[in-house]
Amino acid sequence: MPALALRGGRLRSYRRTLAARDFRLLWLGSSLSLTGDGMTFVALSWLVLSQPDGTRRLGLLAVCYTLPVFAGGLLAGPVLDRFDKRHVLAADSVVRGIAVASIPVAASMGEMPMVLPFTVAAVYGLFKMVPLAGFPAVIPDLVPAGQREAANALESASFSVAGMIGPALGGALIGVIGAEGVLALDAASYVVFAAMAVAVRRPLRVRPSAPSPVPRAGASVLSLFRDRVLVVTTLAFMAFNVAEGMLLVVGPWLAKHQLPGGAQALGLLLTALAAGELLGAAAAGARRPRTRPIVAIALVQLVAATGFLAVALAPHTLPVAAGFLMIGLFSAPMTVWAQSLRMDRIPAPLRGRGFAVLRTLMQATPPLGAVCATPLLDGGLLVPAAVAMTLIAAVPGLVLLAAGRHLK
Q1: Rounded to two decimals, what is the model's pTM?
Q2: Does 317 fall in a domain?
Q3: What is the pLDDT averaged over residues 179-187?
């Protein structure tokens, strides 16, 4: 009975959070758009792998997908804090939807330029930080403080469910409607998200009582880096994302050259990763960690790091997929707990810029991983790549664990 009551309490927490109409609209629209994005990554990867010298070009695609995030994130924060976040999210969806739609449109008119997938990936990366920073920045405005854990878990779960459905569906549909048709579906999902963002009733714009000059506002953002908890957790996430950036290249390479099934194998790996993230997010959002959040984040990062070793077990698909599952299962709580930690420590007028800066730093490191993984795979050095990913993810977790015991 106590276990059933606890489980019922957890479900009620999620139901209360989803009962908020405006949060529910944004969450559903974001989830649908993310599902389309999961399909797009598979479709773009397959288009690039079909080009001459596809393995090296795949590394370039991963860089285009991730490197512009740094520049885009620096611009996204001030825009999110200055304008109504509903309109910013809608405009972002329109721009990226047009970019994604350019490939099926070009294909329908004749031969598609070889550079177009890389251009689309770069546009995606440039604007990626708008929803990544915008959604968590509006959570405190849309749900009560006591429901933030559940809201953060739902945001993480939307990434996981979308990552689970999108890649698998994209891999299956490539053989039916082609990669161009898959991209057309993603473009449609952007339109739906834009409509749902505009339908939110509550204004999502901070209106300070007295305007602050721009230099002072900038100094306030820089002051976040005097918070040692924010600094050490951000550095740990940056390192973990280097390993995940390597995985962006390793996964498609394994599906193309090592695992049976081709695009379906890639969909399976990404689905396993997302399934783990979904389970991990659901568990983390139901309750706060029993130990200090920073220590709990370090512990799950160490466990997640061991999952990278499984890629060395190719060509056996199931053990590799189990490793992807493990990475997702233990990395998702990192995100949920760290996001709640940031919401407690970043002042409301700085949430757009604060989340944009911190998430930009974390999202800017995967290109480094992609660059490191490409020559290793080009030389057939899969085992060294697996060991490198594991160490890059685990060592900062150890540092965070040691530092976390002394930080408040």
Answers
A1: 0.66
A2: yes
A3: 89
